Fold:
Amino acid sequence: MLKSISFVNKIAVSSFPRSRNFVSQVQKLTWDKYVVNNKKPVVVDFFATWCPPCKILEPALVKAVEDYGKCELYKYDVSEHDEFHEKFGITAIPHVIGFYENEIVFEFKGAIPPSQIKKHLEKFDDRLALKEK
Structure:
């Protein structure tokens, strides 16, 4: 069952129990703070509450991010916000984009299997390794 959770940043979302890399909802007004200026890799799930594939993807995406442990997950509700998401070429949902240092590292569309989500998240590893040098 989905719960409503209130986070320190005062953004309320409906989702699963909170964990260390858990999901918050990001909006156009909070985009720079949570995505652009984030020092960690960020995964943004562009979704809508009425979208069945989005609901199917969510638990697998959350678990994959938790297991990976090196990035943060945010959700962007395309039905509640203006056309800001269109600048990323979002024409269908779910659409997931991985950002690091404000650059796109990966993206995928649709409710893909957990093994494929993991492969996308691992694309952050090369970028993180370069940063450590």
Observations:
- The chain is about 30% helix and 25% strand.
- The mean pLDDT is 83.
- Helices lie at 31-36, 52-68, 114-121, 124-132.
- The CA atoms of residues 49 and 77 lie 7 Å apart.
